[in-house]
């Protein structure tokens, strides 16, 4: 049986694509490079939208990327159930593309922050979080200047009521996100976006002082292999 | 507006030219006339004025810098030495590392954010132009007193500039320094270092060989950035005031630079580049003259083909523009289509603006008329060289006689430790470094606050050959030591960076330096410079690490008051198995705490004298270079044999601060006893060639034997564990209290 294939998207200005591909490989999957200008998903089983400053974050983070030729393919596929994970800039792009509700604004402290952050897993029903237990506290790096999650009151209530808040910051809210939200999912649960970086927490030697990011990749590969 | 062509220059030999406004001396201008056999055109004057500037020609420093070559130790690791964009070092298994540090001091004072940002951008392009993938950056920063109002303007801007530019580029920031001293008010130092990796057989050089080869300008469009000088020229020559009020600090676009990096790497991979040069200071002038001078010797350029962001730019301004994110490549006619296709893939504008010739002349035309016709070597390599006079500063002897032994000793060592730990120079730099991405690309093994940054090589370039190796990098420099004795100060800067690399387990291999001084026209400053260079060259020889390149920054002074002489030294090392790297500080309970090296009473220029007494006098610690070498041998061998569980170098603030930092690293305390009979000296003296390490009890004998074999003094001080730093009979401080003191200072000042 061939390995599950996870697409890793590169926009101009994407930075964490190499890390994302490495994390997929370490978990036993095949990382398939997807190019922003090429409207072809190459038959992948899931898609990882990595962090960075796509198109220089000009205009607004993720605002230009959502119009990339690849996104014309990705958006309907995601709506139809393709598992998609967006981290950091990837989360911003998912919000701009209206695949996830709400928006990410400038950090409350107005500074870019890079630090190892405590996060609580609130939902394990997504294809990206099944390897965790509900309420489990993990450590992942955050590194962003615009990660303050905001949404209108009705949306927030719906997210909370529907169990769509997947991750919350613990041990201090680093950026002023409403309800300490670090990551959310869509109603169907196949699309997850979060500001922290699981791909930087998969090896003992490098990255964050934890390997808690591995759970994301074992989750999706287990789901794809069993599918 | 009249175009000042070569023909016109020949016809109007007496036309007054604004060479003085461009910073040229009369004899320099006369020399240009002599070289050309006529007056230069305004475009030629633009080229010579920037190429012969202190910044580009090193005219005041050259005679001293030669020692880095003449005294250089024999090094098998050195692949490319001084004189190229950056030095290249063999790090094994077919891999090479290239690294360099460069100043962007003056722009960072004028406009902190853009000044610092473009400092990062510039050094990254130097590394790219060697054929390498840039893999990390670090910054050595100096500011005025932390609580000075202007520091609150300059520091946040500088940090944001580095943060924004470096983070957008996707380069991890793995270390550096932040130092405060009133001498840097008005003259902050922003020294940016970049390191890159490449395959040993793929080094690119700045050269334009092969007549008929195409000269391609690619990257950002050319605009009116950083051309204050050219505006003088344009307005003086053409009486056109509209260009006079342009900003002289360049503005960076890190997104464009990120695309340039990926584009260049794809160009290298496709092997479609004969020679390449980045456009930094002096822009097109520098790139064309240097490429031509190092190649076949001639080049024809159609300057009107340079793509412009501002179509009103005059040729003189195009020649001097320092617009960022531009590169120039030499490409064979056969490869030009492939070259252009790769640029198009990355949305990088690329334009053929000329051709290599064997005429021995750099000829530039503007809409068909010749405006430049010079032998390129005369601008690139044959600039003026000055033997500037120097002598010891008037107050130097008195300064050295003012021994800190006269200062009152502290009664309370606990309070002294906390006071030092919370002082701006020793306090946590988290406020600064948390604004830098240290994780991107996933190869960061150690980063700040570790003694040195350590990177894994293997996955730095996807698809590259596997290796277990890693590289380590540190920068250091102590302006107070150098003020007291520039010769020793430069050696101590090298010694500390060398030691910081060695404590991680890496073997120090090569050196880069950024020499920050006041005006070379002041003989006292020039003495400091001459002494520092002599000291550094001698120390490099003793330690067996060659200087591969660097940068000189003069004129860091306000009025007649210069900064402390501040040689900042970067050392690159290699570790054979990066998984064997040793973390900084205490990593677990029950390890033996061991002090390596001898402690003497050395308080000249110390952090204690500075913080507690505001005193600077006496002599700095003795630079014990042989001891440093032996210490490094012990540290690297012990690391490779897996004997060490943690290590940390002793420097500013001595053993007291090293112990505190080791506890703070992972919240592991310790109980130790002092070995000398004077607790104050044991704790706060800044003797060099010392390190603090931890070993498992079962490894202690083997480690002690190793130390004995290399004659490195080795003192068992105690054991790790508990929640306090306990120095028996002297002090006890809970780690939580250390942390609170250490972490409160910078947020308290900068918000």
Structure notes:
Chain A: Part of the FGAM synthase complex composed of 1 PurL, 1 PurQ and 2 PurS subunits. The complex is a heterodimer of chains A (227) and B (751). With 227 residues, chain A is an alpha/beta fold. In chain A, 22% of the residues lie in helices and 26% in strands. A nine-stranded mixed beta sheet of chain A has the order 2-1-3-4-11-10-9-6-7, sandwiched between helices. Chain A is globular. Chain B has 751 residues and is an alpha+beta fold. Chain B has a seven-stranded mixed beta sheet. A seven-stranded mixed beta sheet of chain B has the order 23-25-22-26-24-27-28, with helices on both faces. In chain B, helix 20 (523-543) links the parallel strand 17 (507-516) and strand 18. In chain B, helix 7 runs parallel beside helix 10 (254-269), helix 8 (149-169) runs parallel beside helix 10 (254-269) and helix 19 packs parallel to helix 20. The longest helix of chain B is centred in the first third of the chain and has 21 residues, at 149-169. Chain B is globular. The two termini of chain B are 53 Å apart. Chain A binds chain B through residues 12-13, 15-16, 18-19, 21-22, 52-53, 55-58, 111-115, 141, 143, 145, 197, 199-200, 203, 205-208, and chain B through 160, 163-164, 167-168, 170, 253-256, 258-259, 346-347, 433-445, 456, 459, 462, 578-579.
Structural features:
heterodimer; A: 227 residues; alpha/beta; 9-stranded mixed beta sheet; two-stranded antiparallel ribbon; 5 helices; 26% strand; B: 751 residues; alpha+beta; 7-stranded mixed beta sheet; 26 helices
């Amino acid at each position: 049986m061939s390995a599950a294939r996870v697409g890793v998207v590169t926009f101009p200005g994407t930075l964490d694509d190499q890390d994302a591909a490495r994390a997929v490989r370490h978990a036993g999957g095949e990382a398939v490079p997807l190019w922003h200008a090429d409207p072809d998903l190459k038959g992948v089983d899931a898609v990882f939208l990595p962090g960075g400053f796509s198109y220089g974050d000009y205009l607004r983070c993720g605002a230009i990327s959502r119009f990339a030729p690849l996104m014309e393919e990705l958006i309907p596929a995601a709506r139809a159930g393709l598992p998609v994970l967006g981290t950091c800039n990837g989360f911003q792009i998912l919000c701009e593309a209206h695949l996830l509700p709400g928006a990410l604004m400038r950090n409350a402290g107005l500074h870019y922050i890079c630090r190892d952050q405590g996060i609580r897993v609130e939902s394990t029903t997504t294809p990206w979080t099944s390897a965790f237990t509900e309420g489990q506290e993990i450590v992942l790096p955050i590194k962003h200047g615009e990660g303050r999650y905001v949404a209108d009151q009705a949306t927030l209530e719906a997210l909370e009521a529907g169990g769509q808040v997947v991750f919350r910051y613990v041990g201090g809210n680093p950026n002023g996100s409403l309800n300490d939200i670090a990551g959310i999912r869509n109603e169907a649960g196949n699309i997850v976006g979060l500001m922290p970086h699981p791909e930087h927490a998969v090896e003992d030697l490098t990255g964050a002082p934890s390997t808690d990011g591995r759970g994301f990749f074992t989750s999706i590969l287990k789901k794809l292999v069993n599918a | 507006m009249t175009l000042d062509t070569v023909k016109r220059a020949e016809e109007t030999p007496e036309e007054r030219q604004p060479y003085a406004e461009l910073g040229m001396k009369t004899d320099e201008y006369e020399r240009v006339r002599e070289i050309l056999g006529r007056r230069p055109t305004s475009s030629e004057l633009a080229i010579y004025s920037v190429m012969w500037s202190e910044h580009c020609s090193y005219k005041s420093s050259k005679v001293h810098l030669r020692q880095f070559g003449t005294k250089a130790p024999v090094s098998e690791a050195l692949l490319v030495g001084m004189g190229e964009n950056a030095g290249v070092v063999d790090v094994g298994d077919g891999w090479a590392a290239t690294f360099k540090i460069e100043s962007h001091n003056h722009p960072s004072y004028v406009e902190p954010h853009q000044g610092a940002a473009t400092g990062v951008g510039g050094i990254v392009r130097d590394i790219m132009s060697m054929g390498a993938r840039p893999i990390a950056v670090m910054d050595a920063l100096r500011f005025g007193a932390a609580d000075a109002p202007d520091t609150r303007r300059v520091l946040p801007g500088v940090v944001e500039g580095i943060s924004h530019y470096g983070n957008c580029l996707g380069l991890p920031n793995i270390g550096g320094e932040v130092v405060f001293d009133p001498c840097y008010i008005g003259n902050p130092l922003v020294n940016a270092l970049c390191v890159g990796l490449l395959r040993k057989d793929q080094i690119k050089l700045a050269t334009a060989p092969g007549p008929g080869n195409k000269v391609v300008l690619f990257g950002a469009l050319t605009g009116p950035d950083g051309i204050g000088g050219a505006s003088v020229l344009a307005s003086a020559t053409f009486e056109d005031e509209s260009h006079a009020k342009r900003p002289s600090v360049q503005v960076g676009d890190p997104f464009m630079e990120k695309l340039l990096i990926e584009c260049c790497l794809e160009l290298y991979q496709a092997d479609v580049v004969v020679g390449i040069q980045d456009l930094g200071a002096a822009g097109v002038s520098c790139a064309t003259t240097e490429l031509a001078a190092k190649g076949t010797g001639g080049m024809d350029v159609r300057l009107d083909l340079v793509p412009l962001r501002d179509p009103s730019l005059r040729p003189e301004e195009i020649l001097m523009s320092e617009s960022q994110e531009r590169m120039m490549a030499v490409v064979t006619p056969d490869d030009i289509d492939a070259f252009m296709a790769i640029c198009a893939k990355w949305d990088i504008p690329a334009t053929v603006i000329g051709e290599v010739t064997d005429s021995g002349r750099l000829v530039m035309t503007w809409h068909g008329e010749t405006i430049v016709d010079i032998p390129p070597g005369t601008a690139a390599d044959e600039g003026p060289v000055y033997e500037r006079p120097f002598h010891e500063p008037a107050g130097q002897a008195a300064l050295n006689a003012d021994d800190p032994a006269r200062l009152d000793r502290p009664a309370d060592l606990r309070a002294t430790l906390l006071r030092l730990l919370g002082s701006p120079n020793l306090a946590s730099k988290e406020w600064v470094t948390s604004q830098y991405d240290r994780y991107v690309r996933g190869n960061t093994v150690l980063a700040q606050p570790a003694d040195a940054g350590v990177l894994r090589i293997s996955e730095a370039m996807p698809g590259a050959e596997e290796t277990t190796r890693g590289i380590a990098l540190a920068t250091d420099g102590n302006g107070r030591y150098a003020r007291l004795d520039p010769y020793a100060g430069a050696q101590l800067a090298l010694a500390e960076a060398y030691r910081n690399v060695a404590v991680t387990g890496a073997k120090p291999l090569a050196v880069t330096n950024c020499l920050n001084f006041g005006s070379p026209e002041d003989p006292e400053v020039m003495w400091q410079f001459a002494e520092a260079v002599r000291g550094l060259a001698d120390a490099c020889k003793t330690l067996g690490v060659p200087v591969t390149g660097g940068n000189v920054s003069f004129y860091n002074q306000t009025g007649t008051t210069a900064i402390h002489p501040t040689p900042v030294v970067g050392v690159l090392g290699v570790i054979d198995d990066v998984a064997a790297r040793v973390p900084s500080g205490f990593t677990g309970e029950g390890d033996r705490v061991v002090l390596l090296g001898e402690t003497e009473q050395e308080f000249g220029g110390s952090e204690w004298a500075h913080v507690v007494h505001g005193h600077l006098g006496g002599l700095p610690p003795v630079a014990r270079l042989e001891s440093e070498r032996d210490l490094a041998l012990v540290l690297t061998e012990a690391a490779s044999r897996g004997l060490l569980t943690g290590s940390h170098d002793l420097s500013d603030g001595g053993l007291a601060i090293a112990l505190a930092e080791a506890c703070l690293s992972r919240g592991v305390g310790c109980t130790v006893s002092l070995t000398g009979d004077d607790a104050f000296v044991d704790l706060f003296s800044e003797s060099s060639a010392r390190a603090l390490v931890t070993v498992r009890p079962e490894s202690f004998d083997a480690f002690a034997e190793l130390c004995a074999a290399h004659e490195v003094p080795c003192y068992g001080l105690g054991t790790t564990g508990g929640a306090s730093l306990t120095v028996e009979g002297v002090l006890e401080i809970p780690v939580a209290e250390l942390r609170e003191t250490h972490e409160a200072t910078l947020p308290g000042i900068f918000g």
